Each structure stands twice: as C-alpha cells, then as structure tokens.
Amino acid sequence: xxxxxxxxxxxxxxxxxxxxxxxxxxxxxxxxxxxxxxxxxxxxxxxxxxxxxxxxxxxxxxxxxxxxxxxxxxxxxxxxxxxxxxxxxxxxxxxxxxxxxxxxxxxxxxx
Length: 111
Known about the structure:
A hairpin with a 2-residue loop joins β1 (17-20) and β2 (23-26).
C-alpha cells in the first residue's frame, strides 16, 4: 500500500465515528477492524462538557462483540465522571443490548 493509499484509508476511517455536541455517531457497521477508531471517538465523547452523552448506533446493522465490551467500558468510564449514557440502536441489534442487560445501566432507545 502506498503512502497516499494509507492516507486515504485513514481519512475514510476517520469518518466512521463522529463526535459532535455530546453525540457519538456510528456511520457504518462496526467490524472489529474499526475498534481503535471507535475507542478514540469514545475518548473524545468523554472529554466533552456534556453530562448526558449519546451514542447513536441507529444506522448500525452489525456490531462485532469487541464493540460491546468497548461500549460497556464507555458506560463505566462515563459513570465515574458522573455522566449518563443514552444508546440509540437499530431494531436489528437491539436484542444484543437486551441480552447483555445494558438497559440496567444506560438508557436504551430503539429505532
């Protein structure tokens, strides 16, 4: 892979997860290869001044199990900072969060 190709790939991955005004938005399905980008986006979300944080997964139709652990970690880190997490999820993946019992620790909104 050339240097230009690597830059283009990095730029494309940077748009996978956006953080704006206390909302982390996933713009694609969540495959394990993108975990580092998601983890960095979670850190940016935690650094915002907002107390109510939102993770919008409403456009996600596949989520790797590694992301579930990362989301759980985000919830724990947020609670230590006295912040609350709202998860917006698509109907297609909502069952994962129900099985995990996430609705006990976060507000879960199904789209």
